[in-house]
């Protein structure tokens, strides 16, 4: 081997590298502008000017890549933004560029673009239409309560409110609002047409349960305690409208059974929805599991204790409880209800506050039906008037929000504020609280958007 041999090998370009730079990743051999065009084509003269070895290599690689797929397949996001990845050789060869554009258009036709379901104007229009239907239903219920118009006005208003609430719940939870609202409208019309006590009572139970669940689902995360108060009031008001719709069906009920049925239906529906919103059981964690267990035990103990006192309590104990209730009603205008003040409102307050930081807050909010379900069925008790119901709910809100405030502060004391060993820990309790509020940035759709 002479010294000129390494120099000749170094000066000679490697065939694989030359082909990779000249031939694109995909070449259509049937295109007239391909490198290996036929002698009778339009580019025969240009092909003849190339060396025989280059033409032979180009034809061989064209046959090799004839059935290959293009390396750059544009995604719908890139296509929508105009940022497509094109091979360098495709820009140099017009035929390969046209073929890549055709492949891109074909793939774009197969893969649909990701467009939002509803624009801002669409959301505003649907919300306006929903509020209008809800207002018409409430006007009909008010006319029935004031004995204005025919007797069927109250039933029509109840059906309208039930349909509007079903639409809102289905749209909020990512369901089929058109199908479920149409089904609710048909069932409500059948109930009014048949006019049977069992059907009207069943419709009232379902309406109250839907109102209770919707009150919880329409809440949004709350970073600070004033926002917690706002979300709790919003849930109670939505459930309170549902009790007027349930009363519009004129059910024939046993008050205790009706309230238990509404609470059971609302709790089951809320847990099914929260299972999806809270990332299933694996999204609970230790603290979430502890919250669910403690909440379930408190709910069971509260209901069982009240039922045991009512059924098996001694006359002295029952009489003392009854005397206390009568005294509160005579002197205070109402009394806080245990299940609302001790479980429902604190759970809803703590859950909305936790949802701004962790997804497990949805599991805490599920126990918020402990306040919305009794509120949605409060007017079905003929012994309690509207004013007394409002006063009792107000007392329950005050007591429950105080308990919720304490629970939130205890939670922040253990998990919210930075630790003492943190070098970036703000100085002072107020600075630490502001830093914790600024870090609560967990995103969640707005009140008029779908959660799923």
From TrEMBL:
Residues 8-21, 52-64, 422-436 have a biased composition (Basic and acidic residues). The keyword Coiled coil does not apply. It comes from the Bacteria. Residues 1-110, 422-452 are annotated as: Disordered. Residues 87-109 have a biased composition (Low complexity). The chain crosses the membrane at residues 121-146, 152-170, 177-194, 200-220, 232-252, 258-277, 289-306, 361-382, 389-408. Keywords: Membrane, Transmembrane, Transmembrane helix. Signal peptide: none annotated. The keyword Membrane applies. This is Uncharacterized protein.
């Amino acid at each position: 081997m002479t010294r000129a041999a390494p120099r000749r090998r170094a000066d000679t370009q490697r065939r694989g590298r030359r082909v990779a730079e000249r031939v694109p990743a995909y070449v259509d051999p049937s295109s007239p502008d391909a490198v290996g065009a036929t002698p009778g084509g339009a580019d025969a003269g240009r092909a003849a000017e190339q060396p025989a070895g280059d033409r032979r290599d180009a034809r061989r690689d064209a046959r090799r890549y004839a059935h290959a797929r293009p390396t750059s397949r544009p995604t719908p996001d890139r296509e929508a933004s105009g940022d497509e990845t094109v091979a360098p050789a495709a820009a140099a060869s017009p035929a390969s560029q046209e073929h890549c554009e055709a492949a891109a258009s074909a793939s774009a036709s197969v893969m649909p673009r990701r467009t939002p379901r509803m624009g801002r104007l669409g959301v505003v229009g649907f919300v306006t239409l929903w509020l209008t239907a809800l207002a018409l239903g409430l006007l009909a219920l008010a006319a029935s309560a004031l004995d204005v118009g025919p007797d069927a006005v109250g039933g029509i208003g109840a059906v309208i409110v039930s349909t509007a609430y079903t639409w809102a719940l289905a749209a909020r939870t990512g369901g089929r609002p058109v199908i479920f609202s149409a089904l609710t409208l048909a069932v409500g019309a059948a109930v009014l047409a048949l006019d049977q006590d069992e059907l009207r009572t069943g419709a009232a139970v379902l309406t109250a349960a839907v109102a209770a669940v919707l009150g919880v689902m329409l809440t949004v995360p709350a970073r600070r305690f004033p926002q917690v108060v706002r979300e709790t009031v919003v849930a109670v008001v939505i459930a309170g409208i549902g009790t007027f719709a349930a009363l519009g069906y004129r059910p024939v009920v046993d008050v205790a059974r009706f309230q238990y049925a509404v609470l059971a239906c609302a709790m089951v529906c809320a847990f099914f929805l929260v299972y999806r919103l809270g990332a299933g059981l694996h999204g609970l964690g230790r603290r979430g599991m502890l919250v669910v267990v403690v909440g379930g035990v408190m709910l069971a103990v509260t209901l069982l204790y009240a039922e045991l006192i009512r059924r098996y309590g001694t006359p002295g104990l029952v009489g003392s409880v009854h005397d206390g209730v009568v005294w509160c009603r005579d002197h205070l205008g109402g009394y806080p209800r245990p299940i609302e003040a001790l479980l429902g409102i604190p759970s809803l307050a703590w859950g909305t506050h936790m949802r701004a930081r962790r997804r497990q807050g949805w599991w805490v909010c599920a126990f918020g039906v402990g306040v919305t379900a009794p509120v949605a069925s409060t007017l079905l008790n003929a012994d309690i008037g509207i004013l007394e119901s409002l006063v009792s709910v107000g007392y329950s809100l005050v007591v429950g929000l105080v308990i919720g405030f304490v629970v939130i502060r205890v939670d922040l004391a253990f998990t919210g504020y930075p630790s003492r060993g943190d070098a970036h820990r703000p100085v002072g309790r107020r600075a630490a609280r502001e830093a914790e509020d600024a870090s609560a940035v967990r995103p969640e759709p707005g009140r008029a958007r779908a959660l799923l």
